[in-house]
Design goal:
- The chain is of the alpha+beta class and about 350 residues long.
- The protein has one domain: Glutamine Phosphoribosylpyrophosphate, subunit 1, domain 1 (4-Layer Sandwich), CATH 3.60.20.
- The chain has 9 helices and 13 strands.
- Strand 2 and strand 3 form a beta hairpin.
- The protein is globular and about 50 Å long.
- The protein binds N-hydroxy-L-asparagine.
- The site of N-hydroxy-L-asparagine (SD4) has 15 residues, from strand 8.
């Protein structure tokens, strides 16, 4: 039963103006295996991961499948069909981390459909953690990935052409004060906006963390970063310790939102360390958000940052600066979308 305490803890204060029918606002179950992804569009990611976990597979394989599923979907913010930078190029960032501190990352990667799998190849077949730009693309091609078209997807072209009319450079991610999102054509619901009227905000970076039947944790993060960013800009998502961190003794954490704010605080690593000190995943996510906000409370009114965390016991937590951050949990056949507590 959903108790009042659960409502308080899991953020019923943050009721958005949207239709909440599909959202379950209660404490997610503690169970194993389990996969948790950012946003309600995390359903796609979890549906990719779940068959692996259900059949007793590794969390690492599950999170890679989550990334692949998200990258296959033509969305605003993940994969080759995503929104471009301000010069019209789609540049992709992704990373992956397993239960033994092995990790791989690609940044500023163009025209490769599955950056998450390239990141895994970096992790498993090179002595390095991160490859960038042309070098990352060269590595991908040498490893059997194919070069995709350099044309923007129809959605991205439309959005970009709309943005070009004003070309306003507003590298701020914020849902609270921004224009209302257009509902996604893919049926992801109001929480997965494809784009906003002035192109100033965007969301949908896919971060996934999972705990498998053997009790091992892994995570991945994949994104095109901010829409209409400066050419060459890289956010938090592919940076181990910022957009993703996994310590198999403690927990796994990923995040979404304004990457610069996350990088400054080594966000995902911070949340893992806060869990190590005895905080629940929820408390740890909250403390990290407070730390980010404390630096500049006025500025924090203008951006979103949201963390999701999963500990070794299968407990889940999430917390965001602004309202309307959702995440999706799968611990049986049906993914459940949860509205996160907010500051
Ligand atoms: C970035 N953190 O590039 C990403 C953007 C994001 O949902 O999360 N969007 O800064």
């Amino acid at each position: 039963m959903t108790t009042r305490r659960h409502f308080l803890r899991w953020g019923a204060f943050a009721l958005p103006q949207f239709n909440l029918k599909n959202l379950l606002i209660e404490k997610p179950p503690v169970s194993k295996p389990v996969v948790v992804s950012t946003w309600d569009s995390g359903k796609t990611a979890n549906n990719g991961a779940w068959p692996v976990l259900k059949s007793g597979g590794r969390a690492l394989d599950a999170v890679e499948q989550a990334g692949i599923a998200s990258e296959n979907e033509q969305s605003c913010c993940v994969g080759v069909g995503a929104n471009p930078d301000r010069d019209g190029h789609v540049t992709l960032d992704a990373c992956i981390m397993d239960n033994q501190f092995n990790c791989g990352s690609v940044v500023f990667l163009e025209r490769i459909k599955h950056p998450v799998s390239v990141a895994r190849k970096v992790m498993e077949t090179t002595p390095h953690v991160m490859l960038a730009g042309a070098g990352a693309q060269q590595f991908a091609l040498a490893n059997g990935f194919t070069l995709e078209s350099d044309k923007l997807s129809a959605d991205a072209r439309k959005t970009y052409e709309h943005w070009l009319k004003k070309s306003a450079y507003k590298p701020v991610i914020n849902v609270e004060n921004g224009p209302k999102p257009r509902p996604s054509k893919k049926g992801n619901g109001p929480f997965a906006p494809s784009y906003f009227d002035d192109g100033s905000v965007n969301h949908d970076t896919m971060g996934t963390i999972a705990l498998d039947s053997a009790g091992n944790l892994s995570g991945m993060c994949t994104t095109s970063g901010m829409a209409f960013k400066m050419h060459g800009r890289v956010g938090d998502s592919p940076i181990i310790g910022a957009g993703l961190y996994v310590d198999n003794e403690i927990g796994a954490v990923t995040c979404t939102g304004q990457g610069e704010e996350v990088i400054r605080m080594c966000g995902a690593h911070l949340v893992v360390e806060l869990m190590r000190q005895g905080n629940t995943p929820q408390e740890a996510c909250r403390a990290a958000v407070e730390r980010i906000v404390k630096r500049d409370p006025e500025r924090a009114k203008t951006f979103q940052v949201a963390f999701i965390a999963l500990n070794k016991a299968g407990e889940i937590g999430a917390y965001s600066v602004q309202k309307d951050f959702t995440y999706t949990v799968t611990s049986n056949e049906t993914p459940t979308t949860v509205l996160a507590a907010k500051r």
